[in-house]
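Work Package 3 committed the consortium to producing structural models of liganded targets before the mid-term review. Because experimental data for this complex are still outstanding, the team generated a predictive model from sequence and the ligand definition alone, so that downstream docking and mutagenesis planning could proceed in parallel. The input record is reproduced below exactly as it was submitted to the modelling pipeline, together with the SMILES string for copper (II) ion.
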Amino acid sequence: MAMQAVLAVVSLLLLLWPARRAGAAEYVVGDVGYGWESGSGINYAAWAREYSFAVGDVLVFQYVSTQHDLYEVTEEVYRSCDTTAGGGNGVRVKYTSGYDRVVLDEARGYWFICDFPGHCLGGMRLAVNVSATPPPAQEEKEVAGRRRL
Ligand SMILES: [Cu+2]
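The resulting structure, written out as tokens with the ligand in place, is given here.
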């Protein structure tokens, strides 16, 4: 009976497995729980340089939702930290859940900021460049904060 249950679970996992894109990875921004944080000392530019992001990868932003948020913005807003510029047209997506999984589904630059007053200027901004295919070298590299899907 127990063996049958195990087989059923294994079969289910095998059924679900192909739905995941081979090579896609999930990154917890900042590498730790509540890694999207001000005052944490995390240098997001340095964090992003640790990895090579490819289409299909996922960024996970974890934060206290009453203290931070997450806006995907244009490069201009990323640089100015001014989300009201251009009538707010520089804001692409607003996330506020505190656990936001952002699928990087296009090969392009992505820019993220926290819109709480002063946080972006204080360092809560992240820029990543997403390439069409992952570099082969990274496939075998195991690094903190990255886990295979
Ligand atoms: Cu913030």
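Reviewers should note the following from the model. The beta strands are 25-28, 53-54, 58-62, 70-73, 91-95, 99-103, 109-113, 125-131, 146-148. These observations will guide the Year 2 experiments.
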